[in-house]
Amino acid sequence: MKKKIGLALGSGGARGLSQIGVLLWLKEQGIEIYCISGTSIGAILGAAVAVGYSPEYLKEEASKINRIDLLKYMRLSFSGKSVFDWDKIEGFLKDKFSNKSIEDLRIPFACVASDIDSGQEFIFSRGDLVAAVSASSCIPGIFPPVNIHQRHLIDGELVNPVPLDIALELGADLVIGVNTCRSVFAERMQNRPDHPSLVKKMDGWVRESLGKTPLRYFHADSKSSPGDNGQERPRSRNIIDVITDSIAIVSSRVLAFERLRSGPHFIIRPPVGAYQDFDFDRAREIIDLGYAEAEKEKDELFRFLGT
Fold it and tell me: What are the backbone dihedrals phi and psi of residue 250, each rounded to the nearest 5 degrees, phi first?
């Protein structure tokens, strides 16, 4: 009997766009996906595939993202609950997903969120698709929690960064996971010096428009990449870096445990650790890294799949 192949798409913000490259590669190889589980950006991409969008379409749309788009959707929040509002992004998702329910999707789909009150995993396998992926994607502190079923739900990366087990629960015999979480190792977290993170640039644009001095960046105690003189230098972080780097530490520990308890799986790890969560203006190069990594791992992947 032909084995059912599941796909577990992980968190990682803009780094998660490399999963589009993996999707393109899988399609080219004729590898049929039976079900998809997702967390955070992986939930959004997985839902898009389950709705019926092709990897080619996703690549085309992602490659169009520029700083104007980001400023359009990343609206500053004055609620005191988060840095940014989610309303504009939610409107975008509603437009793309046409108010579908998870039960309406062409292939089985589920996504993961974290219950901020209990610390438990919350799995969406039915119900409103936009509400589900919104809850799975709201980075705590950066976006506000989503209130569903009297629960306050946030980014699923905190409890299940690459939901391999959820794909198995959906009926997969074998699971291909894609890990695009930020590395906790400093040399992989460092951006290229000639291309500052989009969040840092956004801060400059917003502050300049308001006539204010840019946010003060501080140096963390942990060491980063070598400086020009060959000595170690600390990495500069703003408030968003602090939040996302903290989540990276949590997810790395969760993933270490995940490897011990999950069933038959193969994890693809695109080398995207140098990118920041909001580097969406670098989508094309990030997507290409995902495709290249899948191609690099093809022999082992085919052996895993028994093809």
Answer: -60, -50
